[in-house]
Amino acid sequence: MQAEREKNQFAEDRERLSRQLIRLGDMIGDGLHLEPDGKWISKEYRRVAKALGYELGKRPRRNNGDAINQRMAERVNEVRCQKCGGSLKQTRSGSLQAKCESCGAQCQLLKSVRRKATGG
Ligand SMILES: [Zn+2]
Fold it and tell me: Among 4, 38, 88, 99, which is 20 to 30 Å from 20 by CA?
């Protein structure tokens, strides 16, 4: 059954692309795409997302790390300044750092961790 085989091939491609997209999404979440050699990540992410038919919507040309900002917004709500207990604020868009609004102390709320490949 030729058609059946093509369907399976298509499903496999989709699965492969989906996994790739998740991996790229993780890397973007870690902020790796903001590093000097990480520009390919957001490019690849868009390409894969498009191939999967996902609507990314109209985004500004510059991507300031939406994923980071989202995670930072959660973190600043959870974490208080370690020095004075004041509320923290992200230093700038796309940053992993936050600054205390009371005493100005800075701390890193998110880590840009490179995921190690586990096993095979
Ligand atoms: Zn403080």
Answer: 4
